[in-house]
Amino acid sequence: MPPQSLFDKCDMAKGRHIFHRMLNWVLPERCPCCGTITAAGGSFCVFCWQKLEFLGPPWCRGCATPFEFDRGADAYCAVCIANPPRHDGIRAAVKYDDLSAQVALRLKYGGKIGLARVIAQHMLRHLPEEQEQLIISPVPLHWTRIWSRSFNQSALIGKQLADMSGLAFVPDILVRHKRTPSMRGLDHKRRREAVASAFAVHPKYKGALKGRSIILIDDVLTTGATSDGCVAVLKRGGADWVQIFCWARALRGDGTQAGTTISFDA
């Protein structure tokens, strides 16, 4: 059979372009924050894009709290110096607020699973340069929540990030063997108590995590109690380095770290 001609390839490309234009007309892309129809190829409407607070350096090496000026890549904030975190850094795409929360809500409860790719695209810029033996793994859900929701939003995000970066994705390193109660309105101490002993390394990975580097995927980080519980288990299981990646995170002092605005029970 003769090879496909250049003209045939051009015709196919034109056909795909027409198909995508027709699909966008019938099912136009909408802003994940407000639902407004967006321009072709744009994830967010102009208004929401300008309102979202994207995070990046300069920030604390430990918790990634933004600094007003560059203190150097190895600088820690006063809180991390006084109380060093268990994790090896937090990397969030945006600041947690009512606007960014809508993206996570539409994915988590609205079933808009395509938003996992949008979120992963904005996480991609935070991946470390050194990626040897790096593993991506999500914060797990209890089986009853998987059954009721049919998916783990953190796993969807992690899979998309792995596909974009070429990194290994291992979705079941951690298991959640205890269903935690609703954390709505709980302070950080009570949230930590609620997730105590909720996670464990899957038996098939015991002994296999020694010296490994893991990116732990969560959708939203408010108090950090859930992710801290996961990090502690991974480190006890032998992991040498664990960094938390999320779509949105509460910043210290903005009134959201106690989970007082919107509940994101895993």
Structure in words:
With 266 residues, the chain is α/β, with parallel strands linked by helices. It has a single domain (54-249), classed as Rossmann fold. 35% of the residues lie in helices and 14% in strands. The protein is built from 9 helices and 7 strands, in the order αααβααβααββαββαβ. The protein has helices spanning 6-26, 46-51, 78-82, 98-108, 115-123, 143-149, 153-165, 188-195, 225-236; strands spanning 90-95, 134-138, 168-169, 174-176, 199-201, 213-221, 241-249. The strands form 2 sheets. Strands 1-7-6-2-3 form a 5-stranded parallel beta sheet. α9 (225-236) links the parallel β6 (213-221) and β7 (241-249). It is globular, with a radius of gyration of 20 Å.
Task: Write a short abstract of this structure.
This protein is an alpha/beta fold. It has helices at 6-26, 46-51, 78-82, 98-108, 115-123, 143-149, 153-165, 188-195, 225-236, and strands at residues 90-95, 134-138, 168-169, 174-176, 199-201, 213-221, 241-249.
What is the fold's blueprint, element by element?
Layout: H1 6-26, H2 46-51, H3 78-82, E1 90-95, H4 98-108, H5 115-123, E2 134-138, H6 143-149, H7 153-165, E3 168-169, E4 174-176, H8 188-195, E5 199-201, E6 213-221, H9 225-236, E7 241-249
Parallel strand pairs: 1-7, 2-3, 2-6, 6-7
Antiparallel strand pairs: 4-5
Helix pairs in contact: 5-7, 8-9
